[in-house]
Amino acid sequence: MKTFAAPVAGAIGFILLWQVAVWLRVADPILLPPPSEAFTDTWAALTRGTLALDTWRTVQRTMLSFLIATVIGVPLGVALGAKESVYRSVEFVVDFFRSTPASAMFPLFIVLFGPGESTKIAVAAFGAALVILFNAAYGVINARRTRVLAARIMGASGPRIMADVLVWEALPQILVGMRAGVSLALVIVVVAEMFIGSTDGLGHRVINAQMLFESGLMYGTIFVAGALGYALNLLFLLIEKRFVHWAGR
Amino acid sequence: MSIPPREAAISIRGLRKAFGGQPVYSGFDLDVRRGDILAIFGPNGCGKSTLINMAAGLLPMDGGTILYDGRDVADVRVGYVFQNYREALFPWRRAADNIRYPLRLMGLPKSEIERRVERLAASFRVRFDLHRYPYELSGGQQQLVSIMRALAVEPEVLFLDEPFSALDYETTLSLRDLLQAVLKEIGVTTLLVSHDLEESIVLADRLLMLTRRPTTVADDVPVALPWPRGTAALSSPGFVAIKARCLDVFQAAVAA
Ligand SMILES: Nc1ncnc2c1ncn2[C@@H]1O[C@H](COP(=O)(O)OP(=O)(O)O)[C@@H](O)[C@H]1O
Ligand SMILES: [Mg+2]
Known about the structure:
The complex is a heterodimer. Chain A folds into two domains: 1-32; 58-197 and 222-243, MetI-like fold, CATH 1.10.3720.10. Helices cover 81% and strands 0% of the residues of chain A. Chain A is built from ten helices and no strands. The mean pLDDT of chain A is 91. Chain B is an alpha/beta fold. Chain B has two domains: 1-77 and 157-256, Rossmann fold (3-Layer(aba) Sandwich), CATH 3.40.50; 85-153, no CATH class. Helix content of chain B is 37%, strand content 23%. The longest helix of chain B is centred in the C-terminal third of the chain and has 18 residues, at 169-186. The relative contact order of chain B is 0.17. The mean pLDDT of chain B is 91. Bound molecules: adenosine-5'-diphosphate and magnesium ion. Magnesium ion binds at residues 48-49, 161 of chain B.
């Protein structure tokens, strides 16, 4: 019970602050509606409008790009990490593109994939894949050397060591990379929904609400996007706890 | 000590190894008799780990040969117990699965694997739950699992690199008693690295004292004390005499 008390108090405090700001007329009521209005507008959009569908579309896109990123990033990262010299030679490229804002690559991806659905998925998958690859490679590179030697002396072949030791050693780091990757995929998908010809998705809904001065709905949609990101992060933390019970022990 | 070739389980000839131009071994010879427990005692950094790692095939040598009854280490079943059990066991496998792992690699049938695990558990009088994960066990229990894993393959040669140095004294004493009983029962040729003189004498048939680098043999001490060597053996006249001799050698050659 105690674990919930603090965050709930924080959330109530935040809403109170918002209400006080409205009372003090810190901003134009058109731009800063009271929390109650934001809530009713958002509730109406969820139950009668398209907000639920928008949320679902964003979840779908995020999951699809995340899946592609994982399928590419994990095996490639593990393979590169197993050959540290090879990883060192591609490290600069990985780091460079990892540091490049994905939004700066929208035009390039639009040229490559056209102004539609596949571009959103491709950019998000690209960004997430680099993060996942980088973490997987480092997980393997930092594998405890003693464990590798132990497997070798027990007669494990190269591929066996890879499957029985390196992948497991890297698993905690791989999951950290996947958690970072899914968060990044969500960020990129939402931005892509704003700027790459969309008719649905949370990004599209936010920018639409803003242009139509539906401030209550805009705040509500931002909140839904935030809740989504928070939930994804939490989900992956739970998965990490459950599946890599040995991490850090 | 000259050992007839037919009794020698391990013969090392002209071993050379250097790190970054600094020689650790330059022409090192050693024969180990079959079934003997050889303790290798020497100051930190003198090359004890380097020696058994080369013997175990974990580290390439610069020159010389290490032969097991004429065979290369690749053709010999070996067991190895690392100093750091925490980093040697697989924490994603349960203790029993750690022990089964090398047996599965060997492709043994399930019934044989279970038979060996049960026999090891009986020999070492294991009372804790082997179904637990290594990190749920105490340090002594983890190192015991390591030892069982190394012995599961029924090795021809067993290597132990300071197996007790991360454990407290009480745990060390009880593990030492268990280990000597089992090693003497199965008669496996053993190389034990230690920087604890008492431990080296208690566990060994023969004690090799090494000098600082470049490493040579300071003394080669036969330890003909009767087995088993319990805590009482530590104060027996034979033990005290050997310890005194070793300390003299240590003062003269190693610490000089
Ligand atoms: N991989 C390595 N690279 C460079 N020097 C090493 C390496 N391994 C061991 N050494 C050096 O060789 C010497 C012997 O090391 P080691 O066999 O680990 O000693 P110990 O007798 O304590 O087990 C030490 O001086 C150590 O610094
Ligand atoms: Mg050492």
